[in-house]
Amino acid sequence: MTDENILWRAQTYALLASLLVQPPSKELLANLAAIDVTEPESPMGKHWSLLVAAAAQADVDVIDDEFQRLFVGVTHGELMPYGSYYQTGFLMEEPLAVLRTDLARLGLERHEEKKEPEDHAAAECDVMRLILMAEGTPVVTAEDFFQQHVQPWMEQFFADLAKAKQAEFYRVIGSFAQSFISLETKLLS
């Protein structure tokens, strides 16, 4: 696999992490809207084109409200972006304990000021980015981390996001990410 391909994958994980941890800033939306899709007819190129168009039309305040409805809510949002929830139906279950073990092996730990558990979709995407960009061979490979922690649930989460009732901008993100995770599944399985 070329370094360019690894960099593209890492940047895609970074983008997903950014979009899932908080609503996008005006600057991020402008950067997305300015992307020149070089292969618009490829499967991912079509999703990139839709993402670029959605970012160009986006209103930061509207997306902020959408993010709150989808992921925060009064008690919780329309979607629960946690691996434990998707795999067991409950928060803070065994998948989180297994994830914490692998994070410790990687030398990663949760910051005290972080409120979200480590199995949040944004956090797992960020770990994939870190592993892909690591020098040498990490103690937990991208393949192992993906198969153990991402593949069991994240494609379904993004499918749910792509059809979420309260999503507009994030519906495009869901479809984009579902396609990306599907490609990753083929690559890493």
Describe how the helices and strands are arranged.
Elements: H1 3-21, H2 26-33, H3 43-57, H4 60-72, H5 83-88, H6 94-105, H7 121-133, H8 142-150, H9 154-162, H10 169-188
Helix pairs in contact: 1-7, 2-3, 3-10, 7-8, 8-10, 9-10
Report on the structure:
The protein is mostly helical and 189 residues long. It has one domain (3-188): TorD-like. Helices cover 66% and strands 0% of the residues. It contains ten helices and no strands. The protein has helices at 3-21, 26-33, 43-57, 60-72, 83-88, 94-105, 121-133, 142-150, 154-162, 169-188. The protein is globular and about 40 Å long. The relative contact order is 0.15.
User: Count of helical segments?
Assistant: 10
For the sheet with most strands, the description reads:
none
Residue windows where pLDDT falls under 50 for at least 5 positions = none
Order of helices and strands: HHHHHHHHHH
- CATH superfamily heading: TorD-like
Mind telling me which CATH architecture this is?
A: Orthogonal Bundle
Give the number of DSSP strands: 0
- CATH level 1 class label: Mainly Alpha
Terminal CA distance: 15 Å
- How many domain modules? 1
Helix content: 55-70%
Shape: globular
| Percent in strands | under 5%
Mean pLDDT: 95
The CATH topology turns out to be: TorD-like
> From the helix content, strand content and strand pairing, which structural class follows?
mainly alpha
Alpha-carbon Rg, integer:
16 Å
